[in-house]
Amino acid sequence: MTAPGRRTNLALLAVFAVALATGAGSFATGASAGRWVIWAHGIAGLGVLALAPWKTQIARRGVARRRPSLLASLALAALVVIAVVAGLAHSTGALRSIGALTAMQVHVGAALVAVPLAVWHVIARPARPRPTDLSRRTLLRTGAFIGASTTAYVATEGLIRATGLPGGDRRFSGSFETGSFEPEAMPVTQWLNDAVPAIDADGWRLVVATTDGERSYGDGDFTRPDAAVRATLDCTGGWFAEQRWQGMWLSDLLGDADVGGSVLVRSLTGYRRRFPVSDAGRLLLASRVGGTPLSPGHGFPLRLVAPGRRGFWWVKWIDRIEFDDTPWWWQPPFPLA
Fold it and tell me: Which of 54, 147, 150, 170 is most buried (CB neighbours < 10 A)?
């Protein structure tokens, strides 16, 4: 492989890795302080586009050789194109959904499927770095490339707003407003394979296990006039909705226990997330939204409201809360099921 071709592959590998890392970070970002991760993700995505013309020339030579792995390489290229195009479609708002899927879901899905193919591609056709790659000229080119990608990102965002495209109204996370202060218009989404369970309000119980033992609560025990918060549910599917939630503060159930570890909140479906014990005073166990009881799709009879965290932290259909010796961060950054 020629030196320019090898350097193009190395640059594309680096940009792809940054795009994946910042993409994962974007999913985890629920507060505006983390918006730089979303910016970095957008810049990396445009970097992939900027390298496409040079990579296309390399790919043409590879196609001409008709290697046995050609189909896998073409599949990788197609997935990267789909991920970039779907990401642009979402960010501009030109295309919010593709069939039953949102553009964001297509963007993320294509990127995740591309990862194993990208790993295979790197192993099968390694582009090894050399000492000369750290030359002053290379570093200057790298800086110019980053600067050009950043400028393109800023210009693109400005153009989206100047032309009045729907993407100009995105939240810092990239999500679009859907159903704020209209609970019935708020989308119903679950994480991966969860389904909306049929819950009998009379038979449902919440078990809370603390250092003092276990206590059980029923429907109707979770509405206090002074326990309410205006918070934004920001779903990783690409939408957000601001609502007024009512219920009971988690700290009211746990008391002032001085314990280590974490608080585990579990759903009737088996879904669960751990939280720092210190967050209990900021977490609301909501039984109502917008002054009305939760609907089954939105978590009836009880869901967690976690301001500043993305939607997958907002556990629905809660049936058990307990102290856990495991640190809150000792869990997958994103639920696996």
Answer: 170
Q: Are 136 and 269 part of one and the same domain?
A: no
* 3-state secondary structure at position 98: strand
Domain count, the chain: 2
CA separation for the pair 170, 157 (Å, rounded): 11
CA gap 118, 73 in Å, rounded? 9
pLDDT digits (tens, 9 = 90+) for 237-292: 899 999 999 999 999 998 766 677 899 999 999 999 999 999 999 999 999 999 99
Of 174, 204, 231, which residue sits at a domain end?
174
Model confidence over 159-194: pLDDT tens digits?
999 999 999 999 999 999 999 999 999 999 877 677
Q: Which of 170, 225, 174 is nearest to 27 (CA)?
A: 174
User: Domain of 246?
Assistant: 178-324
* Residue 185 shares a structural domain with residue 279: yes
pTM of the model: 0.89
The reply to whether 150 and 221 lie within a common domain is no
Give the end of a domain, one of 117, 152, 174.
174
How is residue 210 written in tokens?
A: 């603390």
Q: Quick check: helix, strand or coil at residue 300?
A: coil
pLDDT single digits (tens) 80-135: 999 999 999 999 999 988 888 889 999 999 999 999 999 998 888 777 777 777 77
Q: Is 166 in contact with 158 (CB distance < 8 Å)?
A: no
> Among 335, 263, 258, which residue's Cα sits nearest to residue 304?
263
